[in-house]
Design goal:
726 residues, alpha+beta, 7-stranded beta/alpha barrel, Beta-galactosidase, Chain A, domain 5, 3 domains, 12-stranded antiparallel beta sheet, 5-stranded parallel beta sheet, 26 strands, 32% helix
Length: 726
């Protein structure tokens, strides 16, 4: 006799590329391992399991026993393995050839590792666009799961949000299951009896159908307070017991069993969507606040259930507009992908094919979704995740350069719309560095890659308004203690540090390098830190540019005729990269059109990311070589011509040498952001501002040369020592 209701219980385990080993280990101990321990006692409970590739690689290396256990569950028919794109990219953020390539690569890996057929996949963050169906089917996948909100927004009525549907693109058919939002909130936050009651009511209304729930495995033990709730107090065991006790009418099955036992309910074309909260987070901050307030009002109205299916928020791709830093990573990834794809079509011989495979693997790692967006979790705001993305993208770019035939010492300069803003940017690159400039936006240096260490020194992040900042301000001085279950259902607020509200500040220009400031002569460091004191229009003004290149030297010349105190002034900056000094950028400034006898205050802002603070082995040093404070230091150095920043852990020494003696300001950029554990301050980078006060001479000109030197000898020596030790 067929059950009255079939339940698909899907678990998605994921850790980002670049996450700390300790986080992986803790997730294993608190969530992944104990979940299997409980599941083992309930052989009749079937689970559909997805582990992201970034997590699986770590498990294979550090927890082979977990792999063995899962393989045994698979062989017994208790676990179905879901595939997906290997390193959990947002499908909308990568080209078609990478979508298909990542899915195929992960399917092959999973089938070999677990000795099973992979038929279904997990869609990262459930970000969906209609054309994905063809790509997924072309990659060999038969079915997937998306949120029930996708179906509501497609016009599917509430009483039809069960079973599964067929969708189509370019003649390819894909089965899609709606993920029940109500179950995502009862599991594991409410008592198991509440979930059973909901399922009973559902079975009575829709006998013989399938209901699906899929959610993060980390909510079963890894999220704050959930280990005690799920395992200490036995929630999961009670839930599985309740499912077993109701097996006369409720059967827990895999997705594969569902498509074999139950016919589809029909065809549907799903719109661009993600889960409801993600669509809210994708809105601009002001619109997000308005949306949330409007929704709070409407939810209380009698007719909300009729309005809800037509009440929609934003679109995932607009994270790339909301956060230009995410767009920078996205565009860098696309640049490498397009070039690598073209070169791969003509690659011949084992050496070239190996280079293609290595570069593609690095690229796929660099497409992991987590730092490309931000919502209730850190994501974009976590420097170690952004740094990991750039590390892999830089490695992929370097391998692609080798594939193109570049060997030995070389330099190159080219202009192209690299960041997809309909303006041309400039890439100045060599065998050791790659620098990107935006002439249309202040002539900023907005990316600076060090190939040997895989570090982008300009993986910075601006401080900007977020909807939750008001909560932090309102919570000032109040207790931040909150019940963990309430916190994990987004009903509580916890501040991980005191006086966080004092750190909330917003930047008025991009925190990049070669940001040109004309300032009042009496401006102080504190005023400048607050974004005040400017008297020119060069900070984000448009610069004209030209390129120069020889076999041994490449140059970018950027020039702007602007205004200082409403008087015309011209700034020309020339940035050079020479094969003889491939780890150094030479920057020459010439100011002209100055009024003779008038005093000016000129500053060039540099920002340095990827170097952590609050550690004794990360510090500044002055022109004498003496340490000048850790990297969070706020200071004003006077009458100096040199400053350096050292990160001993990275093995990196960054120095600025000035041809004109002046002052140097330093201060940190710290954001206040949300994370799994609560609100926290995060060090995003160091601001270093050489500045000069001078009186213009009769020629009306003034010049300064800045040498930006990137010394990786510590890192290289360490790498050689490690090789020797092995």
């Amino acid at each position: 006799m067929a059950p009255s209701l079939r339940l698909i219980f899907a678990i998605h385990n994921h850790q980002p590329v670049g996450n700390f080993d300790g986080v992986f280990r803790q997730a294993c101990e608190d969530s992944y391992d104990p979940f299997l321990d409980v599941l083992q006692d309930f052989p009749e409970i079937k689970v559909t399991l997805h582990n992201s590739g970034s997590l699986l690689e770590w498990l294979e290396q550090h927890r082979p026993n977990y792999i063995t256990r899962v393989r045994e569950f698979v062989q017994q028919g208790q676990i179905e393995i879901l595939g997906g794109p290997f390193y959990e990219p947002i499908l909308a953020a990568i080209p078609k050839h990478d979508r298909v390539g990542q899915i195929k690569a992960y399917t092959a890996h999973l089938e070999e590792l677990f000795e099973t057929k992979v038929r279904g996949m997990w869609v990262p963050e459930r970000v969906w666009e209609p054309n994905f169906a063809a790509d997924i089917v072309d990659a060999g996948i038969e079915y997937t799961m998306l949120d029930d909100s996708h179906f509501r927004w497609a016009g599917v009525s509430p009483d039809r949000l069960h079973g599964y549907y067929i969708t189509e693109d370019e003649g390819r058919l894909l089965s899609v299951f709606p993920d029940d939002e109500r179950l995502r909130y009862t599991i594991p936050w409410e008592k198991p009896e509440e979930t059973i009651k909901y399922l009973q009511e559902f079975a009575e209304k829709h006998p013989g159908t399938v209901i699906s729930v899929g959610d993060d495995g980390e909510k079963f033990g890894s999220w704050p307070g959930t280990f005690e709730h799920v395992f200490g107090k036995g929630w999961l065991k009670k839930f599985f017991t309740a499912l077993t006790e109701n097996s006369s009418w409720l059967q827990v099955i895999t997705m594969a069993q569902a498509v074999e036992q139950v016919p589809p309910l029909g065809k549907v074309y799903l719109p661009n969507a993600s889960y409801r909260e993600m669509t809210e987070w994708a809105l601009p901050t002001a619109q997000q606040i308005s949306y949330q307030k409007t929704r709070e009002v409407l939810v209380k109205q009698e007719g909300w259930s009729f309005v809800e299916p037509f009440f929609r928020a934003g679109f995932w791709r607009n994270f790339l507009v909301k956060y230009p830093e995410a767009n920078d990573m996205y565009c860098r990834s696309r640049e490498i992908s397009e070039r690598l794809h073209a070169l791969s079509q003509t690659a011949t011989g084992p050496d070239q094919i190996e280079l293609v495979e290595r570069a593609r693997d690095e690229l796929y790692h660099g497409q992991c979704n987590c730092p490309y967006w931000h919502g209730a979790f850190g994501g974009l705001y976590l420097p170690h995740l952004r740094n990991a993305i750039y590390k892999h993208l830089i490695a992929a770019d370097t391998l692609t350069e080798q594939l193109s035939g570049r060997q030995g010492r070389w330099v190159n300069v080219e202009a192209k719309d690299f960041n997809l803003d309909a303006r041309k940017e400039i890439k100045l690159s060599g065998d050791r560095l790659a620098a990107y400039f935006a002439p249309a936006r202040g002539g900023h240096l907005y990316e600076l890659d060090i190939r040997s260490t895989g570090v982008n020194l300009l993986a910075t992040l601006n401080r900007r308004p977020e909807p939750y900042h008001q909560k932090v301000i309102d919570a000032a001085g109040k207790s931040s203690e909150v019940d963990d279950v309430s916190f994990n259902t987004h009903e509580g607020i916890r501040c991980k540090q005191e006086n966080l509200h004092e750190l909330i500040a917003y930047d008025r220009w991009p925190r990049k390098s070669l940001v040109d400031h004309f300032l009042r002569t009496d401006v102080s460091l504190d005023e400048f830190r607050s974004g005040n004191g400017g008297v020119g229009d060069f900070v984000v003004g448009v610069y004209q540019s030209k390129l120069r290149e020889s076999e041994t030297r490449a140059e970018v010349v950027m020039r702007r005729e602007g205004n200082v105190n409403e008087e015309p002034v011209t700034v020309e900056k020339t940035v050079s990269l020479d094969v003889a000094a491939g780890g150094q950028l030479e920057v020459n400034y010439e100011l002209s059109g100055l009024n003779a006898g008038e005093e000016y205050h000129f500053a060039v802002e540099f920002n340095v990311a990827s170097m952590a603070s609050r550690a004794d082995d990360r510090y500044y040093y002055d022109s004498t070589g003496r340490q000048a404070g850790r990297l969070e230091t706020i200071q004003a150095l006077e009458e100096t011509d040199r400053i350096g920043l050292v990160d001993e852990w990275l093995g990196l020494d960054v120095s600025l040498d000035l041809s004109q003696i002046g002052g140097i300001w330093t201060f940190p950029i710290e954001t206040v952001s949300n994370s799994e554990g609560g609100f926290e301050a995060v060090h995003q980078g160091c601001v270093v501002v050489p500045h000069w006060k001078f009186t213009a001479n009769d020629s009306g000109t003034w010049q300064v040369k800045i040498l930006l030197t990137l010394d990786t000898s510590i890192a290289q020596a360490r790498a050689l020592a490690e090789v020797a030790a092995r």
